[in-house]
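Support request, please re-run this one:
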Amino acid sequence: MPSRYLSSVARLVVAVSLAVATSACDVVVGGLHARETAKDTWQRSFQLADGGRFELVNQNGRIEVEAVDGDTIEVVAERSAGASTVDEAKDLLKQVEIQAEVTAGLVKITTKAPKSFGRQHANVKYQVKVPRLTVVWLTNTNGVVKVNGVKGAVHAESTNGTVAAVGIGGEVEARTTNGSVEVEIDQVTGEGVRLETTNGSIELRLPRTVKADLRASAVNGGVHTTDLEVESSREGTRRRIEGRLNGGGAPIEATTVNGGIRLVGK
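Re-run finished. Output below.
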């Protein structure tokens, strides 16, 4: 067979192969990304005196809480649902419920949403404003949790997501399983500070003058302090520090398994 003929056949085979590959890729990409979304907004206001308690339980989506002046809690929740068709997305959105339990000293918001399966997925993003002295208790499964300026006690946790809190003036407990923990406090009070993660780093910023008993440990990672004078009660190691800050006081505990810990004075 002439070599010129073979060359023509080879070019034809290559061209057909590229065409088939391109066609298959287009079909896959289109199938993976063809998605419709339905959204709406749930908004409520509640009266809560200083020292009252606000609780929020979410499953999928961010939680952001900011402290403000006044005695009103404002909750804005953006619900969204994704599915293969518009009608399926709208039907899924109807199944995302937000329940509010309100008493004189408590406002509790709970998200009820169907489990994700196949191409269907629902989430709720919360933006909340609370009085400054509110006790805040936040629980999330998949998503970031952020708290800003709260002076009451704070408990914030997620399973998959970063937990971050700044300008905190009361006791604080922040924990996650897969994600980092980032906290900045103005003072240490009451039960102190407890920070914990399994897969992620921890960073705590606190006043240099704070009086506290410190204990920090990382299984697979280092523990470092900056601008803090730690009076060690036992010999420290690269992965563990235990001692007193300014004579001791409320406890500060930070633990991680896979990640490092940074303790920074300000």
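Confidence is low (pLDDT under 50) at residues 1-34. The CA atoms of residues 25 and 158 lie 37 Å apart.
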